[in-house]
Specification:
alpha+beta, Phosphorylase Kinase, domain 1, Aminoglycoside 3'-phosphotransferase, Chain: A, domain 2, 2 domains, 5-stranded antiparallel beta sheet, 11 helices, about 45% helix
Length: about 300
Amino acid sequence: MDKTIIKKIFLRNNLGKIDKIEKIKIGFTNIIYLIDNRYILKICKDANNENNFEKEVYFYNLFKNKLPVPNLIVYDNSKKIYNKFFMIYPKIQGDNLYAKWHLMDNLERKKIIKELCGYIKNINNTTYNDYVKKFKIDHPLNWHNKIVTSIQNSLKKIKKNKLITSEFIKEIETFVDKYSYVLMEQKMVLVYWDGHFDNILVKNNRIVGILDFERTELSSLDFYLDIVKRMVGRPKKYMSAEIEKFGRKKDYIKLLEWHQEYYPKLFEFKNLNKRLDLYALEHDLKDLIGWPDVKEIKQVIAKTINYKKFIF
């Protein structure tokens, strides 16, 4: 993005002249700049993601007095100054939790999870009627059908592009047919399901920021555990390259245990393990489509469905 456009954006919004513009190397669907170490400029790169971008703005405004979310000072979807949606908010002074987790002891980590669970409860307990109306969400939503349909749609693409063997695909289909009934139980709430530690900011071992609400959706309560379980099993997945060296599996092994202690309702589902398997499968099949040559993704899927013929 041309720096003159960024300067124009700030002048037009009465934020004055700016000097330092630094592109932040995070995110896949948006472009993010740190401006004068004071402001975050977030730009919706992909037009197909504009609805999710609008959702993030909605949730930042909804939760601004309840959670440590960014305080938006500019949101522009007019495309008059620049042909992309964008938002501006003051930078939250803190570090992402991945960068600090390895420096904490288990008592400090446990306190962070207790605090985080409090915020997650707050999100889950927020009424969603306005959200459903504003974004034209199908409601009441059939959770079982939503997850199974997503899996089936991914399998169609995988079959078409021959990303794995037909036998492997058949094993996945058999697994889904056998266990999808467990998803008939549902407790529908707003779920912030992108809560990996790159989106949690901390300072002095306290949470000072919660970011990226684009994927907050109406979901079954336990769906939040999908991201938690993935951090336990694959702690480096969401880490930036410079933090990966600190991603020790032993530091994340108790995440589910601590969540269960501080938010037991997340775990009050029959056949929870199989539910989490189906959530993992739904996620990993999408990953396979995006990164078909990554062997680890196929290994993870095979492990989820106990497909032992796949060569590890």
